[in-house]
Design a protein that fits this description.
This protein is of the alpha+beta class. The protein contains twelve helices and 18 strands. The chain starts with a helix and ends with a helix. Bound molecules: ligand BES and manganese (II) ion (2 copies). One manganese (II) ion (MN) binds next to loops.
Length: 462
């Protein structure tokens, strides 16, 4: 491709300021107070896609937040790349832990990012990574180097489980038809070590409610004689792991695909420093399922984690009370083979079965999604590998990721194409955490690498 680096150099200030503008809109899909902002973000994405050279862009309504769909079809005989991303972001709380306001983006240098990094909610997940694709398209159209057709599908509900996207995909198979799906919503191993995510974990997310007495009680008058829902809930939760940190729900592991020793040995070759890992998190030791390494625990093994737990008195000072109710939100990360609906059912049955008679338990499923693994022997993977090799000077390492993009498995099934996960984020970017950021280097490298994917994919399709 011609002039990529000079185009980026000449336009990088604008690339950054445009992203900053997008990051100012608090498109928090989980909180209905931000509804107008989420909708405003969809409009902004539409405008950006039009400016970048899409022929048509529409805002497609769903039962929830709309999907922005755009396309540029240059020749029906050429391959089509479908880009997926999301314009919604996670809630920003706890606000007091941010060094700068989450929706007032600032560019600051850090030890890891001497070129600067953009600090804002959504900087990396996923506005920054999604916008790399918009700018890559701008580069290709304005320098007359777009080698194939392109479609964009940018949704606004990824952070809340993509519940309405599946209907949209099923109803628009023709419109979305493509030869490969390209997503930048994952990470890479290190700034100088590109990787391609070859797997994502599935998810089952549930909320549980434990009810004891019909009202909050004096903890002296009643304490010891009735079940305390918080005591009971925490005991039930603790029993979900055994002493080896295996999950105790009967049947939970039945369909887990075990990797062969060869595959595990291959995985272990990826560069990883346990010391650096511990240092970055300020922990003295790691913790997890016996018999597996840290990288295995967070990618090829399923997990169960409490994401939030509440009940009782948490205000200032003390209040002697036995609360009537206690609650927890629990996520289970699943691996290929495990069906998320089935796991949700197993959890529900088990959790209800271990509750003492003295309490009532409700399990409310939230959302879920299937895990995903992608083979590396396809032209999509090869095109991505060649693109990274050109821009980083070394071949990317295939790596299974621990996070979830629930819709990915459905894309493969409904649209019958492979998904290529070209992530440019770093684990240290603090996605979903306070002080989320995205390196300027990573952002620009993404814009540089993506057009090469289009080029190589088109060449390899011939
Ligand atoms: N982009 C992330 C997923 C991700 C990040 C995968 C890094 C691999 C590496 C995505 O936006 C996300 O946060 N997904 C949610 C699932 C959703 C149902 C809330 C997740 O993984 O918790
Ligand atoms: Mn994301
Ligand atoms: Mn996310």
């Amino acid at each position: 491709m011609k002039n990529t680096t000079s185009y980026i150099e000449n336009n990088k200030d604008r690339f950054l300021s445009e992203l900053v503008e997008l990051l100012k809109i608090p498109s928090i899909s989980a909180d209905s107070a931000y509804k107008a902002d989420v909708l405003r973000t969809a409009e902004a994405v539409k405008e950006r896609l039009e400016q970048a050279g899409c022929d048509t862009v529409e805002i497609c309504p769903t039962a929830g937040y709309p999907i922005v769909y755009g396309e540029k079809i240059i020749n029906k005989d050429l391959p089509t790349v479908l880009v997926y991303g999301h314009y919604d972001v996670q809630p920003a709380d706890p606000l007091e832990l941010w060094d700068s306001a989450p929706f007032e983006p600032v560019i600051k240098t850090t030890e890891l990012h001497p070129e600067g990094a953009i600090f804002a909610r959504g900087a990396c997940d996923d506005k920054g990574q999604m916008y790399m694709h918009v700018k890559a398209l701008e580069f290709m159209t304005s320098t007359d180097q777009l080698p194939c057709n392109v479609k964009f599908m940018i949704e606004g509900e990824e952070e809340v489980g993509s519940v309405n996207l599946s209907t949209f995909v099923k109803e628009n198979r023709e419109k979305l038809s493509n030869d490969v799906i390209l997503i930048s919503d994952t990470g890479m191993i290190a700034k100088d070590t590109p990787s391609i995510t070859t797997g994502l974990r599935g998810l089952s997310y549930v909320e549980v409610e434990v009810t004891g007495p019909n009202r909050d009680l004096h903890s002296g008058l009643y304490g010891g004689a009735v079940a305390n829902p918080i005591n009971v809930l925490t005991k039930m939760i603790a029993s979900l792991h055994d002493e080896n940190n295996h999950i105790t729900i009967p049947g939970f592991y039945d369909k887990v695909e075990e990797l062969s020793q060869e595959e595990r040995a291959e995985m272990a070759k990826a560069p990883f420093s346990l010391d650096d890992y511990k240092k970055a998190l300020d922990i003295d030791d790691v913790y997890g399922e016996a018999g597996y390494t840290t990288n295995e625990r967070n990618s090829i093994r399923p997990t169960l984690d409490v994401n939030g737990i509440w009940g009782g008195y948490i205000g200032e000072g003390a209040k002697t009370v036995i609360a009537s109710k206690a609650y927890a939100k629990i996520s289970m990360r699943l691996v290929p083979g495990q069906e998320w609906e089935e796991i949700t059912e197993l959890f529900k049955n088990h959790f209800e079965s271990i509750a003492p008679k003295a309490v009532k338990v409700k399990v409310k499923p939230h959302h879920g999604g299937q895990g995903y693994v992608t083979p590396t022997d396809n032209i999509g993977y090869q095109a991505a590998a060649k693109a990274y090799t050109d821009t980083f000077g070394k071949a990317p390492i295939p790596q299974r990721g621990g996070g979830s993009i629930p819709i990915v498995a459905l894309f493969e099934k409904e649209l019958d194409s492979k998904i290529i996960l070209m992530g440019f984020g770093l684990d240290s970017d603090a996605i979903h955490s306070p002080n989320e950021h995205f390196g300027v280097f990573n952002y620009l490298k993404g814009i540089e690498t993506i057009p090469l994917f289009y080029k190589y994919f088109t060449e390899l399709s011939k």
